[in-house]
Protein 1
Amino acid sequence: MDNIVEKVLKPQNQTSVFIKRKRTFTLAFLGVAALFGISAAITNYDVIDGFESIPKAAYWMARNFIPDEKAWSRLPDILAKLSETALVSVAVTVCAAICAFFFSLLGTETTKTARWLARTVRIVAAFFRNVPDVVWAILLLFSFGQNILTGFFALFFATFGLLTRTFIETIDEVSASCVEALHATGATGLQTVFNGVIPSSLPEIISWVLYMIETNIRASTLIGVLTATGIGYLFDLYYKRMDYSSAGLVVTSIVILVITIEMLSNKTRKVIM
Amino acid sequence: MPILEFKNVSKIYNNITKALTEVSFSVDEGEFVSIIGPSGSGKSTILRCINRLVDVTQGSIIFDGHDVNRADKKEIRQLRKKAGMIFQHYNLVNRLSVIENVLHGRLGYKSVIAGAIGRYTEEEKEKAFQILAKLGLTEQAYKRCDELSGGQKQRVGIARSLMQEPRLILCDEPIASLDPSSSKIIMDHLSIINETMRITCIVNLHQVDVALRYAKRIIGITAGQIVYDGPPDELTKVMIYEIYQSDEGELITDVR
């Protein structure tokens, strides 16, 4: 009797699972579609018009952004500002990484000194991380004005927040077991950090620092527009003078730099991992 | 005089989980004790209470004449130096070389700065190589630990604990991740160390047959309480069933 009941019930149960899943997907799709419809209606967004303008925009860009003679004559200026921006980004990231590393040691499960301190560290890191670098730049504009320091600190705060969090996770993940063993030998906290935590988590940490250098070079362009420094300033200047061909050269040089840095850091990662 | 004494030790994790209840036993110098019991019965907690990786809730532990629970930071460091520890997952710094890992056993003896920057004396280095030779790891000395097999890693773990010149070695499931032949090598080394160097060994084990073969004394614990404490030849089958809370014919040791 039981057997028969099972045989009859089982297939029904299985199909009902599939029906349920289909229903969920349909509802989710309809939900997203409704959201799109409402927001498009509010903002007067016309889908067809939007897509139609893409070729037009591409044509305009192709005509205006191609660097001409005048733009090429500005190349030395552009390269100087570009290298300045890149170097500031590297400096910011390295400074923030060193601070974040020692700060994160107080926040990990494995190396924390006190629970309340660990929690404070995590809250502070979350605060710095969740305020975007552009917002930091705008806030800092009030205190430092349009200055390279503004950009430096904006990037520093955002990088510091993000790296603290990732370092905490990395250290807990890769160092927990050897830290326990080193404590058991009678090693002090500092000895454990230098002999256990740093050697075991260094490759991951370097990998994150490289990633942040890439991200910060991109971000510093935008922040430069706000703070009137670096390559962002140059782009803003040419763009507002409607010297689009020079602005185009700026964009091209940024793209080349970013791709080069990314390739370099990928190579470095392969070597150290 | 016993080297280690547990007096009514209880441990409760997070005010809820009872890991140990009123555990009392004492270990004399030079003993080879094996603690057996099911997973989660409190074996690891017992070991970790001895070197204060875990703080006990109640009771006292006397190790080498000192009350472990009353020890301040400096005294804990002194106590830990005298108790080597070996782990199931070896807990080595995998990216460092074998010799560096062995030298970590000296950190408890060094000043904070000398230990942090890794300055070791010539004698310490020589001793490390002697220990490695004893454990058959001379050729591996400069290899990175992640290149080693499990059995070799565990021997590095033993070498690191020997570097501490310990009076007691705590082994937390030392062979649980090893194949039978590596397991035998590790247990043989522990047994030789115990006999020739008179270092007391407390070994947590899952394998009852291994415990019966190597240990001179067995402590069986179930749900945080000692249910057997005596020589291996008095450990009856019925007793084993009680330790593992199972019925006859349901343990893998029965398959024979």
Protein 2
Amino acid sequence: MTDADLLYGDVEEELRASVRRLLAQRVSTSAVAAAYDEPADFSALWQGLARDLGVAALLIPEELGGAGATAREAAVVAEEIGRTVAPVPFLTSSVIATVALLESGDHETLAALAGGEATAALALGLGAAAPPVSATVKATPTGLSGHVANVADAGTATVLVVPAEGADGIELHTVSVPGPGTTVTPVPSLDMTRPVSDVVFDDAPSRRVDRGDPRGAIGEALRAGAVILASEQFGVASWCFETTLDYVKQRYQFGRAIGSFQAVKHRLADLWVEVGQAGAAARYAADTHARRDPDVAVAAAVAKSYCGTVAVHAAEECVQLHGGIGMTWEHPAHLYLKRAKADQLALGTPYEVRGALAALVGLPRT
Amino acid sequence: MTDDEAIATDLTLRVKRLLDDVDLAGVSREDFLGARFDAGLAWVHFPPGSGGLGLPARFQEFVDSRLRAAGAPEHLPGRNGIGRGMAAPTIAAFGTEEQKARLLRPLWTGEHEYCQLFSEPGAGSDLAAVGARAVRDGDTWVVNGQKVWTSSAHTAQRAILVARTDADVPKHRGLTYFVCDMADPGVEVRPLRQITGEAEFNEVFLTDVRIPDADRLGEVGEGWRVATLTLNNERVAIGGGVPREQGMIGKAAQAWRERPESRNPAMHDELMRHWVEAEVARLSAARMRQRLAAGQPGPEGSAMKLTFARLAQAISGFELELLGEDGLRYDDWTARRPESVEYTGRGAGYRYLRAKGNSIEGGTSEILRNVIAERVLGLPAEHRTDKDIPWKDVPR
């Protein structure tokens, strides 16, 4: 704790500025909203982030073709993605799948991920908070068979990283998509900026990449995901708060700005406090992860449960304080509400995360 | 060598010289603190002669930690917080050279403990409405009125006092700020018993109290500006952080661990929500200190106080429910006169009742939300009917 740096460094601020600039140029909320009506292709946006700015390479060591950065930098990118609800597979590919491959020792796929030529998705339901005890996919000599529901960003992934049940327990495989024996079916998702798909394997050819039980690697991947997701949630909350604050200053009713009514002012004051504190929690999680501080398990759980709840609250306040316009399809508030609520369910609900945290800090449920 | 390194080297030398000049085993607390003041090591950011060296405030911890490590006498814990935390920065900012030379040293050594005569029965959140009158009589002022919620009034030698010197101008413009001698025969202190049973605070009745004009801080009519500086320091002082799982959440967690028979799933999630929020508040306080150290002062003091009050109330109420039937027992209703507030040293019932004051004292939570909304977020100010009319004509 005493060593934690809860502020942003100059390099981190430069990275933030580049990401913000690119997102401002290449994505709009109306383009994002259109993805709810028909399939949209955001690959150019992702190529810009991954290839031009190198965000896909952040968590990959330099000797493997990456940038050798840490969760502190990745968290800044996630904040900016949250602020724009950009439909890009940064969390799923560049954090979760990347860490799973890195920790399990598969270095072949990483170079392609680092350059943005490939994107990957971990074939687990997005709600998973912990590695599976047993996998629904079976690894047989003829290939992988089985199904996984609610895999985020599988629709745009070129590599699936699949926990599968082998003869001696869980194994980790990679599968190229599109490919024989693999069917990825996108489903209508609560949050179409991080759509989920159902994945079915039927004797799909695969490559085993783990060197023994990969559950540790999957756990590290999900933890890194929680750390970075907390910063994304902070970004979502920040946009909702700032947008609402601007609106209540310019919306007039009863001859006054609605932000002059105490009922509105006090809600915004409370929200400002909450969002600011979410930033501190997210930053602490990113910093402990970057320093490999043993407190990272507690820090990640605190950040994920707190920031998830704050992002939803901020999005709900955004809708409410915008009044009628906040309920429309035209106003972007709904994109943030859907992202915030889906983010809250991802990688374990706050209830589940608090339950896991309790075990870490010696406060047993029974 | 950088400037900071040069300052650190110089401070190390000054600390060594101070320690060499006294016999730590034999010196009294007051004498040592006096020598420390004279060496400019009381508040390094104060000017020379006022207990400081005119250095950036961030060097204070450098001095404090070295003196602590040497076992040098320190202030009595919990005593004269108002003097050192609130009166001293106000005197340093608004006092004349003569006042700084006369008032700061006995304040620092503890010879003069201070209390704060601000709030009145008719001026709580609306502090600028104070009605205690100060009328000039030659070189002295004669003060009449009633103050309330004054901690330490029964032990203090001095008070910082805001009084009305002009009733014919709008409320903010007719106030003047004084240092008051609590030994004046016109000062009567009565304990104010509160919902916990104890009397932590006082009512103070001022009847023809005489204050020399030399003890006026700032100009006549400038009292609101002076008091604002005092109150800004109050919010900083209250909004401090604690280590993980200490304070209220520490007591609740302890009760959970010691009482497996009281556990149930609904309360478990509530406990963990409180635990997470207490931890996040702690991290936010840590970040606030880092920002201050990096020269990025933020308005987070008000945020910390809001959060602290909300959590203290929620967690202490939860702790009583966790104790179940044992929560029906209270530790002590006697009208004690505590010298400092010790939440964790008392029972859960005390914590629950005392925490009710957290959202009232030092700025109510409602006023703090206004402060955040208006000064931080730039939202329109409250409609004020009393702003431009003479104080004497305001309805009350």
